[in-house]
């Protein structure tokens, strides 16, 4: 007898795939929001802390691109992080026109709390290691194909 998957037509299978991605997205979003709220941050602020390394700086545009949000939105996020003392703005020595964003000691501490040894984020990320390298590579390849398919529109 045919399996349930065999009986589904293309639209039904696409719907199941979309629902699966929504479930993964909701689970990840819930985890990130919980961690952000526990530190008094927004989800985007937590993403900024994760993106900035402890010893380097990024321009506002590079930070916005890395976090996949607009520069105007990132500007407001950075403003609030500067006001909280988690990041600071400074001009690059080799290009005085460019303002770079870097973590302050407070920002490094927040990042360590969010992603350090005892954090729920680190523990969740470590669960990804239960997947084989082949599974991870296959998933990343499929994700790239889906991104390309969705971006054709």
UniProtKB/TrEMBL annotation:
Record's keyword annotation contains DNA-binding: yes
Pfam families xrefs: MarR
InterPro entries per the UniProt record, alphabetical: HTH_MarR-typ (IPR000835), MarR/SlyA-like (IPR039422), Tscrpt_reg_MarR-type_CS (IPR023187), WH-like_DNA-bd_sf (IPR036388), WH_DNA-bd_sf (IPR036390)
PROSITE patterns listed in its UniProt record: HTH_MARR_1 (PS01117), HTH_MARR_2 (PS50995)
Highest taxon of the lineage: Bacteria
Domain HTH marR-type: 14-148
Keywords, comma-separated and alphabetical: DNA-binding, Transcription, Transcription regulation
Record bears the keyword Transcription: yes
Family annotation (SMART domains): HTH_MARR
PANTHER family, A to Z: TRANSCRIPTIONAL REGULATOR, MARR FAMILY, TRANSCRIPTIONAL REGULATORY PROTEIN
Protein name: MarR family transcriptional regulator
Organism (species): Alicyclobacillus fastidiosus
